[in-house]
Amino acid sequence: MDKQTLIKSWDEYVAPSQPLSPEGMSQRIARWGGIPASPRAFVDTYVKGHERTLYSVIGSGVTDDPNFKPSIAAAENFHVDYIVAPKGCGAAMHWHDSEEVFVVQAGRWEVDWIDGATGKTHTVSLGPRDTISVPPFVHRAFRSLDGEDPVSGGMLVSILGGKTPGRVKWDAALAEKAKAVGAGFGPDGMAAQAQDA
């Protein structure tokens, strides 16, 4: 390409910034000590082995807890959560209708997924800063191998795509375990456990 064409090309690649005041930006900052956390963000947390705490950083994401609100409400096309879990614990098999990316912030984690063509479950181990992207509609589960201290143990970052992610769909095996401990969904679609459970 000639020099004049390259210089002229900048006309399409220069634009002013949208307005954003310091007050507006302050609504888009999540500080670690102030991020809302829930040990019951999902129905599977009522089932032994799936205990974990979800920190809602950006966007509503998906949750079975109606009172769980994110630190940063504005999310144009993605949602971010931090997850810590006791050693050996994590999410049960589930899928979303959008992709989900996991980034290991600290510790070691395992991610399982089910190949819908074969029904076979596969596992991959991940260490700090390893990343995996799970496509929509593929059952996935994860667990901490080191424990729940977010600094020395483990922290997993979940990035969920989409403006308004749909509800979580669970594997049938989890449904049976949840039913056995009296956990299910109320009329509003939110997780609950029977008081006599």
Brief synopsis:
The chain is mainly β and 197 residues long. The protein has one domain: Sandwich (Jelly Rolls).
What structural class do helix, strand and pairing data support? mainly beta
The amount of helix comes to 10-25%
Question: What fraction of residues sit in β-strands?
Answer: 25-35%
Low-confidence stretches: none
3D shape:
globular
Across the major sheet, the strand order is 1-2-3-10-5-8
**H/E series, N to C?**
HHEEEEEEEEEEEHEE
Number of domains: 1
Query: What is the CATH topology classification name?
Result: Jelly Rolls
CATH class: Mainly Beta
Number of distinct beta strands = 13
Major beta-sheet overview: 6 strands, antiparallel
Q: Report the CATH architecture.
A: Sandwich
**Distance between termini?**
73 Å
How would you characterize this protein structure?
- This protein has one domain: Jelly Rolls (Sandwich).
- It has helices at 3-9, 22-26, 172-180; strands spanning 37-38, 53-58, 78-84, 94-95, 100-106, 109-115, 120-126, 131-134, 140-144, 155-161, 169-170, 183-185, 191-193.
- The strands form 4 sheets. The chain has a 6-stranded antiparallel β-sheet, with no helix packed on it. A 3-stranded antiparallel β-sheet has the order 7-6-9, with no helix packed on it.
- Helix content is 11%, strand content 31%.
- It is mainly beta and 197 residues long.
- It has 3 helices and 13 strands.
